[in-house]
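Honest question from a wet-lab person: if I give you the sequences of every part of a complex, can you actually get the arrangement of the whole thing, not just the pieces? Trying it with mine:
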Amino acid sequence: MHLLRKLGFYLVALWAAVTLNFFIPRLLPGSPVDAVLAKLALRGPVDPGTRRAIEIMLGADDDTPMIQQYFAYLGGLFTGDLGISVTYFPTPVTQIIAQSLPWTLVLVGLATTITFVIGMVLGTFAGWKRGTWLDSLIPATTILQAVPYFWLALLFIYVLAVNLDLFPISGGYNPSMVRPAFDYPFLSNAVYYGFLPALTIVLSSLGGWLLGMRNMMVSTLSEDYILTAEAKGLSPRRIMVMYAARNAMLPSVSGFAISLGFVVSGSIIVESVFSYPGIGFTMLQAVNNNDFALMQGLFLIITVSVLAANLVVDLLYGVIDPRTRARG
Amino acid sequence: MAQTQSQTPSRLRAALGRALTPSLVIGAGLVLAIVLFGLIAPFFVADPNAVDNAGMHGPSAQNLLGTTQTGQDVLAQLAWATRGSLLVGVIVAFLALFLSAFFGILGGYLGGWLDEVFSLFTNVVLILPGLPLMIVIGSYVQQRGLLLIAIILAITSWAASARVLRSQTLSIRNRDYVQAAKIAGEKPHRIIAVEILPNLLPVMSSGFVFALITAILGEAGLSFIGLGVNGTQTWGSMLFYAQNGQALTLGAWWWFVPPGLMIAVLGGGLSLINFSIDGIINPRLRNAPKQLKRVKQAGKQAEQEQAERAEGDTGPDERDETSGHDPDQEEVAV
Amino acid sequence: MSIHEQSPIRDEPVLTVQDLNVVYEVEHPVHAVRDASFALRRGEILGLAGESGCGKTTLAYGLNQLHRPPARITSGSVVFHDRDGGDIDVLGLEGDALRAFRWSQVAMVFQGAMNSLNPVLNIRTQLGDVFTTHRPGMSGAERLRRSKELLELVGVEPSRIGAYPHELSGGMRQRVMIAMALALDPQLMIMDEPTTALDVVVQREILMEILRLRQELGFAVVFITHDLPMLLEVADRIAVMRSGEIIELDTAENLYFEPRDPYTRKLLGSFPSLTGSTGDFVRAGFDVEEAR
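Yes, you can. This is the full assembly:
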């Protein structure tokens, strides 16, 4: 029951995203069709079929009723048809997404996991040892949280890449040295190129996790069951981990949805700063080239990824908090 | 209510003294300084758009913060950008506050199917990634006015605080005095305005400050990728021009450091303010372990909260134990 | 009370408290416990009674250093007399020695219906915790067997061992708390309002359970409550506390029939008597109010 409710919610959210994606170009003022056609005309003559396809996609098709268009659009989604990219004409949007998605998934996925772990561990200690130097670290992370992702990225590039020449300025790997393959040279090169973008994401999203965890630790430590655990003579380590931190991290996990939205948004801009070949960078290229099909396809895939990640976390939450299981 | 009125001035001052933590003072100071800079400085600086041949040179007596690639004065740009960013931030924060109050408080108070629909809507908006949505909307609209950008930012940033407001409203709704007002036949809008809103003020002000940070960061992000308000200088647009003007590779730190620093300082200041608001909402978080006085207060508060929690599901005996008012009662069960 | 017929009390001390003082080190220090002295015999139930804030909980928590800052023990001594001979200076213990002492010698029972069990760990883990900490040599199967035995001992169906606290009723949770306290066969149990949050019927069941177990296992109990009539039924001796001081310490019978201190009389008078005439309680309550 609980599970069904959850799944229902994600279906509604997915439907909302898909529908938004359909109505945004149709309900906003101005027709982008001409802009797209002008772009295409630069590459050569545009045949009427392409012209028609673009009109349909952008909602400039006045002949078919809106509702019919909507179902045609939904049908297209189910068959995996997201249209043709203008920027990389005539590559299908799905193919471009398939190329850029892994980069972002690995970068954001790894960075988020690392941040979460560091945030939970430091937050646990900061809450456990209140009043020590760790606690005075808290305001500093707050400032760090207020620093815009992309500005931090700019600073890193300026100091670490341009001036000290420790890291590359942009890109996902060095195409003149390695080519994409699942081998050591490529992977190590990709890690080298991905280090600064990941560092940016970790540093600017760490504060939120840390602060949330620390505050929950403080609240949890005044619970009665902590006193029970102390009376039982358990080691401080066990009390801290099994009794305090385990309970204190629950809100952080259930608040994952909000945080992930921020991280994904931030990483889009970070990718653009580093020209990292992921979803975010591709999206900005689509914006600059008025490539609406690509843009909308990317919006959908980002949303679906965020929803999927949250669904996974939600299911995990049921495992770590038995109370939700019982309610189901 | 009666209790608030009977507070003597000295007690009020004591409460104020407790609220005036160092972090609040520093935070408010930083924010005030930036706001004043944005309000006053634009009247005294040179034309931010005036082009000069002496481009891309560092700080000097003539241009305190150097010039851009096209010789525009960075300080002048910074002054106007501060004004622009603050303006967007404040408009968005008010819009977001309104939206979150509407969906959170109304849904939470009225309950029933309306609450179901509202909270489903809130959760959906919350889970959809904001920036990609903003980018899609922003790129379809060619003429991006201030109001449009503000609305885009507001509709993607109200949901989190609506959820907080809803849960708070739910707990206040069930308190005795609200029930009493209901039974006495008070109209719903009056109950919300008189009984519920005052209790939500700390949470709402924290939500407002949070919305302000989110809005300024969000606007900066949008402007940085070239989708900001047409023709308005903001911190984000300065960074956009700086990156496109090769400020990084040419080492023109005076161009890209100041706008980001302003965002960071303002954000830090606002966070510090939020920190102390949090401390008022949840006294257990107040951190000054050296002062045992505070430890004592925290203990008291924790116990009162516990008493409140306990009241729901325990008998009168339990209430006796925890709601006494002897001076040393508070200490015992710490 | 058939249980009292064969007294489980043995005439040798298990705990001696001498001039214990506990102060809350706050801006205006609060002297929560003043010069408390008493000796507890093996198998004896000592009631600690008094109104809210009289210092009874502080005193009890001081007995195994469970008091939290800003509370501080300023002077006095607590000596635990182990049944294997040898005295332990409890206040001198710290670190691992203190943790080993806790629960194996002095176990505690808190208000179980409240929040004293961790809501996200099941009963098995929370019972097993005690063994993994204090009996590291024990195998997993042995831990499980012993845990089930304990549940059976306190009248909880052993099959419920996988349950989480929210799946149990208030009375069941309190029984689990008691089972946990019995795990290491302690010589002393401190019970802090163990029945307060329970309804009257369950309260009685738990009390009978405690008396039965004490009869069987022979542990001593420090029983904290503000419910003096209940103490009169279960306790062998009762200490009445007021403002941090033990103002009267006597057997339950003497305290009931010949209370010496006027405050004890007030305390006894402030509970309604089933046999008293109508209006007794109102008058008695009024007296108490006046006396303040």
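Two things worth pointing out. The interface with chain C takes residues 223-225, 227-235, 238, 242-243, 246-247, 250, 320-323, 326 of chain A (CB under 8 Å). The domain at 97-293 of chain A is CATH 1.10.3720.10 (MetI-like fold).
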